[in-house]
């Protein structure tokens, strides 16, 4: 709920700054906003308490709140987050953390942030694109200057949806920064600035960790319809094996729509115990299934992202940490540059991550 509170805080603050809330009277009640955002009243009360502490509003819990010194509240830029995703999108945890890091920079860089969630699970492509266009239109009504866009993954029509979004942003002349992933398949490059880790290098680094331990049978497991970042990580994985003169087996790359017992059986058949996983969620699922079906046969994993839960599992995950603070700051600065100079060439900006070694890749003593 902490991330949801941050999103609500940013939306209410933006409405205050744009005069949507509080210009001609009191702010909406906690009851009204709890219904609007589908959260509890205490959650809204905490948001109002924060806004009061920061000097944006005045009033007290149980009474009415009013905007305080509205004419002194201003933002130089209005930015938006565009984050279409499935209801159970496993990347949502790491991305929501990234969006919160971006939101935390709003005062320092003088921008307001519009943040609308968009689920895409049960609609046809045209309906999805129509809904997203409506979000962009609403953003433009709030004098939007630019967008942070995380391309959709784990959707069978992700390519069409992502390309449709870029077409829509171009139509409405909205500058865009791609967060963490491109919407094009390597080596093609999308028509927008990209801020991310170097995924090829990350794939190389995590694989080399196993190689340095003397292991020569290393698999790579990924989910179907994963983001193009996973394909880049596989390139790095293959290069690390090649540089170590390890004869690569095509069967070592295992792609599946879900992580299930069949994957565990495949690893047993291949006699592979060391696995690079496309992300932390895949690694967590793999370890859990292996413990359930083959408790006497240890699997060693290393993955990517360093999601919040990675260090708190029964077997903490070794992972390549996404530097969310640095990605957020670099993305904000890059979007400001793009807004102020639309003639700049398309840029790819890599932010260095960090290999974090925990028990999932080590022999427990």
Automatic annotation (TrEMBL):
It comes from the Bacteria. Keywords: DNA-binding, Transcription, Transcription regulation. Signal peptide: none annotated. InterPro entries: LacI/GalR-like_sensor, Peripla_BP_I, Tscrpt_reg_HTH_GntR, WH-like_DNA-bd_sf, WH_DNA-bd_sf. Pfam families: GntR, Peripla_BP_3. Residues 2-70 form the HTH gntR-type domain. SMART domains: HTH_GNTR. This is Substrate-binding domain-containing protein. It comes from Frischella japonica.
């Amino acid at each position: 709920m902490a991330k949801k509170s941050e999103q609500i805080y940013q939306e209410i603050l933006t409405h205050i700054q744009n005069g949507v809330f509080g210009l001609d009277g009191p702010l909406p009640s906690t009851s009204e906003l709890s219904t609007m955002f589908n959260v509890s009243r205490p959650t809204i009360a905490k948001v109002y308490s924060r806004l009061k502490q920061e000097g944006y509003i005045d009033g007290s819990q149980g009474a009415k709140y009013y905007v305080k010194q509205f004419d002194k509240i201003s933002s130089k830029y209005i930015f938006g987050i565009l984050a279409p995703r499935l209801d159970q999108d496993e990347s949502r945890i790491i991305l929501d953390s990234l969006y919160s890091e971006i939101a935390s920079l709003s005062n320092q860089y003088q921008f307001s942030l519009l943040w609308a969630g968009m689920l895409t699970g049960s609609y046809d492509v045209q309906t999805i694109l129509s809904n997203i266009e409506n979000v962009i239109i609403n953003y433009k009504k709030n004098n939007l200057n630019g967008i942070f866009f995380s391309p959709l993954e784990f959707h069978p029509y992700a390519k069409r949806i992502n390309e449709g979004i870029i077409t829509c942003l171009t139509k409405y002349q909205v500058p865009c920064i791609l967060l963490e992933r491109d919407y094009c398949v390597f080596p093609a490059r999308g028509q927008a600035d990209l801020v991310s880790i170097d995924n090829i290098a990350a794939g190389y680094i995590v694989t080399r960790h196993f190689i340095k331990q003397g292991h020569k049978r290393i698999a790579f497991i990924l989910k179907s319809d994963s983001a193009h970042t996973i394909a880049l990580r596989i390139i790095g994985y293959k290069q690390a094996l090649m540089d170590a003169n390890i004869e690569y087996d095509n069967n070592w790359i295992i792609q599946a729509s879900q992580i299930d017992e069949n994957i565990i059986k495949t690893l047993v058949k291949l006699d592979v115990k060391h696995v690079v996983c496309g992300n932390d969620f895949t690694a967590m699922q793999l370890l859990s299934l292996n413990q359930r079906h083959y408790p006497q046969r240890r699997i060693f994993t290393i993955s990517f992202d360093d999601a919040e839960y990675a260090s708190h599992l029964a077997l903490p995950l070794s992972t390549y940490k996404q530097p969310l603070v640095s990605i957020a700051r670099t993305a904000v600065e890059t979007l400001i540059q793009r807004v102020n100079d639309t003639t700049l060439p398309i840029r790819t900006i890599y932010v260095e991550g960090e290999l974090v070694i925990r028990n999932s890749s080590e022999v427990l003593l």
